[in-house]
Amino acid sequence: MEKISGTQISNTIIEELKIEADNLKAKNILPTLAVILVGNDPASAIYVNNKKKACQKVGIISLEKTLPEQISENKLLNIIDELNNDQSVHGILCQLPLPPHINEKKIIERIDPKKDVDGINPINIGRLCYGSPLYYPCTPFGIVQLLKRSNIEISGKHVVIVGRGPTIGRPLSIILSSKGFDSTVTVCHSKSTSIQTITKTADILVAAIGKAKFITKDFIKEGVVIVDVGINRIPDENSPSKSKVVGDVDFEDVFPKVRAITPVPGGVGPMTVAMLMHNTILAAKQ
Fold first, then answer.
1. Rounded Cα distance, 231 and 216, in Å
2. Could you tell me if residue 131 is inside a domain?
3. What pTM did the predictor assign?
4. Does residue 55 form part of some domain?
5. Residues 160 and 108 in one domain
6. Mean pLDDT by 10 residues, the chain (286 residues)
């Protein structure tokens, strides 16, 4: 039974990226990431602040665009166009979710694929399907790095992903089943029948369904590796007036049966940020 520390692994990656950033600066290339935050969503503000701190650690210039919630879709598209045309900006990230009056799909599609360091532009997802992405999507790539750097074999293993979302479950299934990763992947979702039967066959189980403590010991076999992508706020039983963050897995319930598991917080989250830094450095190199 092992707890995989995403915080520790991501710190190692950040140190590696600092060296690459210094090498670029020696060539008068200043890696720059533009982060767009629309509105005052507290969770989004925390995520953006974490990315800013990571930029500072690596040596990436963080160009922040904090915009009012009422901004029109056209104005936001114009800002993205300006950043697309700015040669000093290597990566662009628009923090999701966006206000309801803005079409997220249209915004994501507008970002230049060469600057789409989040790896979720449809062109980059299409390239991912053909095995030649400009950038891997950050969270799926973070999960792969988490497993590899923990010496957990992926090739030939049965990976069950619970959740088919376009930013995590779906691209992760493409990556893990592609040449070089070579696992057998099953994707479950809310309409799947007998999920419990399927998850019990997993050598590696990825929980990305968005339901707090959904995966219990009854869903897993002995010796499974679990990656918990969920971030859910629930009331804190020790302090009813406060909330706490938990994953999609009931950590205490499954822990005695697992070979290894990522915690929440401190698991996949830091890896997502580290991969964003990796993609930004890669964009600056290109």
1. 16
2. no
3. 0.94
4. yes
5. no
6. 94 98 98 96 86 97 96 98 98 95 96 97 94 95 97 97 94 95 95 95 97 96 97 83 90 97 96 98 96
Which among 116, 118, 228, 248 is annotated as catalytic? 118
Domain match, 88 and 147 both: no
Whole domain around residue 52: which residue ranges?
28-113
249 in Cβ contact with 230 (< 8 Å): yes
Whichever domain contains 40, its CATH number is 3.40.50.10860
Can you say whether residue 218 is alpha, beta or left, with left for phi > 0 and alpha for psi between -120 and 50 degrees? alpha
SS (H, E, C) 130-176: CCCCCCCCHHHHHHHHHHHCCCCCCCCCEEEEECCCCCCHHHHHHHH
Task: List, in sequence order, every residue forming a beta bridge with 206; answer none if it has no partner.
Answer: 161, 227
User: Is residue 73 domain-resident?
Assistant: yes
Query: How many Cα atoms within 13 Å fall on the side-chain side of residue 33?
Result: 30
Whether 118 is a known active-site residue: answer: yes
Q: Which of 65, 70, 87, 95 is catalytic?
A: 95
Cα atoms in the Cβ-side hemisphere of radius 13 Å centred on 29: 17
Here the CATH number for the domain that contains residue 197 is 3.40.50.720
pLDDT, position 242: 82
